[in-house]
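During the reporting period the student researcher (J.K.) took over the structure-prediction task from the postdoctoral fellow and processed the backlog of single-chain submissions. One of the processed entries is reproduced below for the supervisory committee.
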Amino acid sequence: MKTDRQKLQDPQAAEAGLLLARPIQTTTEAPHGLQSLELSEKRDALLYVPPTYQVKQPAPLAVLLHGASGDARGGLKLLMPLADAAGLILLAPASRQRTWDMIFGQYGPDIALIDTALKKMFSRYAVDSNRVAVGGFSDGASYALSVGITNGDLFTHVIAFSPGFMAPARQQGKPRLFISHGTRDKVLPIDRCSRKLVPQLTRAGYDVLYQEFDGPHTVPSNIAYQAIEWFTGKR
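J.K. obtained the following structure tokens:
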């Protein structure tokens, strides 16, 4: 197995927060279910392909980012219970450190790994280029907002469950945004987080669907369901 360092692709693009991978046409049959992408020995990326996937029918894709101290399984569980019914492919990378690189002040190794994971996945599976989302919870939501806005030429949708802040490297395209936050969140209080972020994004011209709920720092099942309906165009 190659090391993470050998696997890094275009470090200058990664430092700029840029993802270069794009969906391509593929006719290759590939396995369904949960699988490791074998990109890292310690903190790998996981891929879930629903049983309904067919190579002749490109599927929507959601890249899911875990919260601080989490891992790839923590990202997957955000939407995994709903993936089969929605026909969603889920890609969940793991941060190289305890949380995402930009939160330490600079993009780099996490972007590189996400780009490598996307390239590998796109080479095997047919993805609907009109339904490519990046989403996450807590630190993962902050990173999803930042990466999604930076790479709006790839991501059509961003799903941010209880974000703390955003730090995009640029504004590219206009992905649609779904943001949720609990009114009793004591980890990332709503008044200094989403209630500040949403007006900023609206003023910047983004289409934002914002959902507040009576609850703590979590992702209620009904909020996850609303996000899926919104992303798949059923709402």
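The committee noted the following: DSSP finds eight helices and eight strands in the chain.
J.K. will present the remaining backlog at the next meeting.
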